[in-house]
Amino acid sequence: MYVTRVSQYIIHATFYLLLHFMFFGAHVSIAGGVFNAPLNSAALGGEVFQMFTRSPQGGSVPELTPEIVALFKKNCELLGQREWYVHCPYFINFASANPRIKHGSSAVIRQELERSTLLSAKYVMAHLGSYKDLGPEKGFEELILGLEKVVTGYTGSAQFLIELSAGAGSPIGHTFEDLAKIIFHPKLKKYHIGICYDTQHAFASGYDIRTPEAVKSTFDKFDKIIGLDNLKMFHCNDSKIEFNGHKDRHEHIGDGHIGRAGFEALLGDKRLKDKNFICETEHDKVKEDLKILKKIRIRVDKKSLL
């Protein structure tokens, strides 16, 4: 029975890879060891997954021994996981007035990039913090200095992504213009920092995706300011908060202010067909969220063949 289930996962993922369609997954637990993450993903029906490699709140950093890394990769292959990603801890803040947090942010992200390279993770994303301590001008200077420390001399395979923020509390990176100002800065441009687009954060920051027309407008704007080639993946969350509400509050797919029609419009944009989507919704219904997204994918696929 177990072998049959594994075979079904692999066949299902391979089918959609041949169609060059997006894959879906969730943020999953690493309780007991990172090698459990692909098992937890497969149990939810995930084709890709996201994880922390350490506690998001701080504390000790679990060692990634060669044996642990080998078992992790073996489980990913066995369970047909196409890609996996790492989210940095939540305490990152490059514009903090606390030197320990500010300088530690560079060190932690660099460490996560190195650890993610060991695990063959494709992307590492982070929230960059808030300008509330230092203000936008001084905060931006410190941000660029901190990010330069992260990427200078880094030769690993995992790519660093900035996650679009929710727009609450003077956040760093809550507009397309702010993100472009960072990744195209003369000191950072050559390092090819990418973007992780969180649907709830963007919606709360004033970027609408509730209709096909809204999706087209939003991603036309993204393409003009940042470039769709720099959009590497999505966090796929509905919103408890109304449009332009400037708060970070995730909701299950179809149960929030974006609505199922919004996700149908988003997944129907052919420009996004090679982007993968990670749900960061509560685990009580995240399995259902993935089923909904897969059903939408089937409908989008049928339309594209007509």
What features would you describe in this structure?
The protein is of the alpha/beta class. Helix content is 43%, strand content 13%. The chain has helices at 2-18, 37-44, 66-78, 99-118, 135-151, 176-183, 199-204, 212-225, 259-267, 286-305, and strands at residues 24-27, 48-51, 83-87, 123-126, 159-163, 194-198, 231-235, 238-239, 250-251, 276-279. The model has no long low-confidence stretch (mean pLDDT 93).
> How do the SSEs run, as a string of H and E?
HEHEHEHEHEHEHHEEEHEH
C-alpha end-to-end distance: 37 Å
Quaternary form: single chain
Structural category: alpha/beta
Strand content: 5-15%
What spatial form do the alpha-carbon principal axes imply? Answer: globular
- Can you tell me the residue ranges where pLDDT is under 50 for at least 5 consecutive residues? none
Tally the beta strands. Answer: 10
Trace the largest sheet across and list its strands: 1-2-3-4-5-6-7-10
Radius of gyration: 19 Å
H/I helix tally:
10
Helix content: 40-55%
Strand count, sense and barrel status of the largest sheet are: 8 strands, parallel, barrel
Mean pLDDT: 93
